[in-house]
Amino acid sequence: MEILEKVKAIKNQEISAVENLENFIDTIKKKNPKINAFIEIDEEGARKTAEEIDKKIARGEKTGKLAGLVIAIKSNINVEGFTVSAGSKTLENYVSGYDATVIKRIKNEDGIIIGMTNMDEFACGSSTETSYYGPTDNPSAPGYIPGGSSGGSAAAIAADMCDIALGSDTGGSIRNPAACCGVIGFKPTYGFVSRYGLIDLAMSLDQIGPFANDVTGISLMLDTIVGYDPADPTTMKIKPSFTNNLEGNIENMKVGIVKEFQEVSQDSIVKVVNDIVSELDAHGVEIQELKFDYIDLVLPTYYLINFVEFFSATRKYDGRKYGYRIEEVCGEEVLRRIQIGSYISQKEYSGKYYRRALQARSLIRKEFMKLLKDVDIIIGPTLPKLPHKIGTEIEPLEMYKYDILTCLTNLVGIPAASVDVGKIKNIPVGVQIQAKACEDYKVLQAAHAIKKLIT
């Protein structure tokens, strides 16, 4: 049953919100000890919310668009009463006293928040192995990483522990785990979703977005969380409707394929992507081959900006107001980023590194927007390689390479999704769909059409 159908069934009293919740609680109790997708759950609070929703429905009162759906939240998004640790010992004792804007909007639409999901520490990672709470397993490929940094949220969806999950995406942290776990993950246009209440990794890159097993779940959550927020000056005064625009005519779309995206990816992944492109071509979609000459600039530009902005964001974790001093308790990857960020933030180096990275970002944005000018969407691999086994020793630069195809989206500020399209040796593979800024609906339409083609 698709998410949209489930909401209708709950509102029509064919199933109750309590029944929906209890099914997920049972699944969490059975699967989470091994998978470690959730750090914390609140059965009592969730039951109370579900009971209230069922009572409202029984009385014939109006209910929200998420009525009775069970939602998981990445542990770097503030939810009142929950431990919001960002996967770090630094904040292991921080219990949030407020709701992030996205959480307020979920609650206003009668979503049921079940708990907080595991993640790479402070979102620094691509595998959910750097969490203070231990790694998360991949339900769709046991023993392999679930991707990161929002690996707990992706795993919760893949293991049928909730209806929808929220993650945050700085350079692929939603789309990477979506691809690894075989689910759908969506990164909105920068400024579409409020970041108020998010523990930032890099403020100029971060966006909150949803995971689900079907496109209607993604669209319903976007309908809920997208919109202007005076608490976040980066948000746009725009309120598009996503669920009502899923059935677009993809045959009229122009689809771009970037040669360099395929050249940096494993052949087996490229074949899966090309099979999807062939299906679209067979259905009359116009395919255009594109060339992007700046692929080698993408990773260094992204990480230089990431390191500096992360270093700046962590200066508040000094152990005075709350938590511990971050440098004293954090893991190796977090410390590495703080140290590099500190180094390149120094006055004598900022021109050599950070300012040049900002210049490179402007160039990348300009050139990539040229590619998008004559097409509606670009389709390519989400990840250049298959996920590794949990615990494999990998050099930092090798780990960073997971981001080469996803971080471009964040540098440019455009929307993108990863859609599960198959498996290689029983490991899920995702296709990434990108579009122009504010044309998030085209990404959803393409994702919806692709899912129909392959099922």
TrEMBL record:
Pfam family, one: Amidase
Enzyme Commission identifier(s): 6.3.5.7
Gene Ontology molecular-function annotations: ATP binding; glutaminyl-tRNA synthase (glutamine-hydrolyzing) activity; transferase activity
GO biological process: translation
Active site residues according to the UniProt entry: K74 (charge relay system), S149 (charge relay system), S173 (acyl-ester intermediate)
Entry-linked InterPro entries: Amidase, Amidase_CS, Amidase_dom, AS_sf, GatA
The Amidase domain, residue ranges: 19-444
Catalyzed reactions per annotation: L-glutamyl-tRNA(Gln) + L-glutamine + ATP + H2O = L-glutaminyl-tRNA(Gln) + L-glutamate + ADP + phosphate + H(+)
One Gene Ontology cellular component: glutamyl-tRNA(Gln) amidotransferase complex
PROSITE patterns cross-referenced by the UniProt entry: AMIDASES
Domain of life where this protein originates: Archaea
SUPFAM superfamilies (alphabetical): Amidase signature (AS) enzymes
Keywords from the named record: ATP-binding, Ligase, Nucleotide-binding, Protein biosynthesis, Transferase
Enzyme class: ligase
Keyword Endoplasmic reticulum: no
Subunit structure, interactors included: Heterotrimer of A, B and C subunits.
Matching HAMAP family: GatA
Stated family: Belongs to the amidase family. GatA subfamily.
Chain's role: Allows the formation of correctly charged Gln-tRNA(Gln) through the transamidation of misacylated Glu-tRNA(Gln) in organisms which lack glutaminyl-tRNA synthetase. The reaction takes place in the presence of glutamine and ATP through an activated gamma-phospho-Glu-tRNA(Gln).
Descriptive protein name: Glutamyl-tRNA(Gln) amidotransferase subunit A
Organism: Methanothermus fervidus (strain ATCC 43054 / DSM 2088 / JCM 10308 / V24 S)
Highest classification ranks of the organism: Archaea, Methanobacteriati, Methanobacteriota, Methanomada group, Methanobacteria
